Amino acid sequence: MAATKRQTKGSLKASGILYLVIGIVCVAIGILILACNAGYMIKGECLELEDYFDSGVYPEGEYVSLNVNSVLGTYAETKHTTNGIPTGTDLYYVLFLDDNSFISLKVKDKGDIKKIDKICDDTWASDDWCTSEPLKVTGKLKTISNSEIRGYYGEFFDEFCSAMGITRSDLESEFTIRELDLDITDSRGSLWGIFAILCGIGVIAALVGLASLKKAKHFEDAPAVDYSNVNYTPVDTSEYNPVDTGASYDQGADTTEQDPNNFQ
Predict the structure, then answer these.
(1) How many alpha carbons fall within 13 Å on the CB side of residue 232?
(2) Based on the number of CB atoms within 10 Å of its own CB, is 52 exposed (0-12), middle (13-18) or buried (19 or more)?
(3) What is the pLDDT of residues 39-68, one digit of tens each?
């Protein structure tokens, strides 16, 4: 039978406090996410990226919406797994905007990927490089922080310039390459999902913590054993004669073993 750790009042109280703190922190983070994105999460309010085209200064870190009407192609993908099981793939596209700039678009939903692929086909088939059926998307505008993704983003423009028969400097003299990514996988639904998960974990952890504290309050540790009244008789060692290890060894002694069959 496997041994189990014996609980004490102190250990119950410590684990209860730990679970309670974890629960409070999880709920606090969930509330913070809701507070910082209340307008977007509750009402769907967000900024229109087109409103910033004239200024040339984009609202990084904000939730924005954009009518996607020109897609040059995809340049990278990331695959997600959980315990070795595939859970989805993120695709990264290059968008050409009406202010003559380029940004990245991160997509996960299969329906959106299908529509954006259709816009990409229309872009290359059109003389004015746009589609007549734009797709309105909403997501968070972020700097491309992943160095590997940023590297693939740069390689896309090198290949694009090579295909168009121009140099990178020629492209950048006419257009702006922004190292920005519109992440539409970070959507309103995903925020509510994160909020629900955090609050769910927080409530469960807090309940476990409160239950442990309640149990500790009524828990009594096993009393210490009192050996003062135990009838214990010590061993009398006064008659014990230790072996004299100081005696010399007599090598002349007869050590021949007597045959028990011929004993006389």
Answers:
(1) 6
(2) middle
(3) 777 777 789 999 999 988 999 988 999 999
- Nearest-angstrom CA–CA distance, 93 and 184: 12
Dihedral (Cα; 165, 144, 88, 96), 10-degree rounding: -40
Confidence (pLDDT) at 237: 58
In the block, tokens 């595939």 appear at 86
Q: Which residues of 151-174 are buried (b: 16+ CB within 10 A; e: fewer)?
A: ebbeebbeebbeeeeeeeeebeee
CA-based nearest residue to 23, from 194, 195, 210: 210
Higher-confidence residue: 161 or 262?
Answer: 161
Unique residue bearing structure tokens 């140099």: 167
- In this structure, are residues 46 and 64 in contact, taking their beta carbons and an 8 Å threshold? yes
Q: In terms of Cα–Cα distance, which of 44, 49, 69 is closest to 59?
A: 49
> What does the pLDDT read at residue 224?
53
d(CA 74, CA 104): 9
Distance between CA atoms of residues 63 and 45, nearest Å = 9
Residue 230: band (very low, low, confident or very high) from pLDDT cuts 50, 70, 90: low
Q: Is the pLDDT of residue 2 over 50?
A: no
